[in-house]
Amino acid sequence: MVYSISAVDGEPAALDAVFAALAHQSRRDLVVYLARRSRPPRMTEVAVDNDLSPQLLNKHTAALEKAGLVHRERRGRERYLVLDAAALADAQAWIRDTRAFWEVQFESLDAYIRTLKGDADA
Fold this sequence. Notes:
Blueprint: H1 12-22, H2 25-35, H3 43-49, H4 54-66, E1 70-75, E2 78-83, H5 88-117
Antiparallel strand pairs: 1-2
Helix pairs in contact: 1-4
């Protein structure tokens, strides 16, 4: 059986941005923090809860925004940080397809090794 990794529906640059954003532990922590919230938190709340300076939070937020994982929402004088988990869909699809590809490759390799050992029926 031949199996190939399918192309992601989105732009390759968008997928790169998601993986680049998630490459940093602090940004992964922010995504988890936002996912666990029942409502979008204020930026100041995010900074305090994650022990980040406003400057560092802005830096990490910019990378997450570039990837489409979050956006800032202004309500009056306050700014809120909103998670957009839909941006993870292309990354999830790529991981799923890549995993399926390698599972088939390893199964094929295992079958080949069994034939070399003479265990084709095992």
